[in-house]
Design a protein that fits this description.
It is built from 9 helices and no strands. The chain is mostly helical.
Length: 220
């Protein structure tokens, strides 16, 4: 019974930040694609912040629940937004910004979460009955958005960073580069079983928590 109670508490604290992070990420892809002339995502109902429009059964529900149950935090993904590049007038510029939009949205959410955490710490009394819960939710929101931004900026197919990088390559080199996607599973295994990703996260986390400190100083 205690395990179930702890599990529900972990989900209630981590899920809001996670759902907002993946929803904003996919919405940003869809919005920028529509801005540059591709209405595909909009036509399929993906130009929305509603998590129900973006969820993936395994990536949004099963995987996060399993990780939360194992007390390993929360991680997952949403369905990729459909993009038809034939609608773009400037292919390279459009693909770059459509790809960058998702991680950028996570960085914006991270900044907003840092601001709200600073407001909570400086303007709300610690005696407020939900002070600890809101603090934990905002901390997890900061961490999740940093995690998703850094992860998606890795220049390895099929991540957003690889699409951004491919816009600087010739057509022939794009084909060769994109063929690396055949080894993506092996790449992700290496990433999770070594400290490589942790090293990538460290500077981003320092920036995130540094922003909290800056906002606290400004509001104090």
């Amino acid at each position: 019974m205690e395990f179930i109670t702890d599990f529900i508490l972990r989900i209630s604290i981590m899920a809001p930040g996670f759902l907002m992070a993946i929803s904003f990420h996919e919405f940003a892809h869809a919005w920028v694609a529509n801005y540059y002339g591709d209405p595909t995502a909009k036509a399929r109902g993906r130009l929305t912040l509603n998590p129900a429009a973006h969820y993936d059964l395994f990536g949004t529900i099963i995987l996060p629940f399993v990780l939360a149950a194992m007390n390993l935090g929360i991680f997952g993904y949403a369905k990729p937004v459909p993009v038809d590049s034939r609608h773009f007038k400037n292919y390279r510029r459009s693909i770059f910004w459509v790809s960058f939009a998702g991680p950028l949205a996570n960085l914006v959410l991270m900044t907003v979460s840092a601001l709200f955490l600073a407001i909570l710490r400086t303007k709300i009394s610690p005696t407020f009955f939900l002070f600890e819960e809101f603090t934990s939710m905002l901390i997890w929101s900061i961490y999740i958005n940093i995690f998703l931004a850094v992860f998606n900026l890795i220049p390895f197919p099929p991540l957003d960073g690889s699409r951004m990088l491919s816009t600087f390559l010739s057509y022939e080199n794009q084909i060769k580069f994109e063929s690396l996607q055949n080894y993506s599973f092996l790449f992700f295994i290496v990433l999770w079983t070594t400290n490589v990703f942790s090293y990538l996260l460290v500077p981003a986390q320092k920036i995130g928590w540094g922003m909290v400190g800056i906002f606290v100083s400004m509001l104090s």
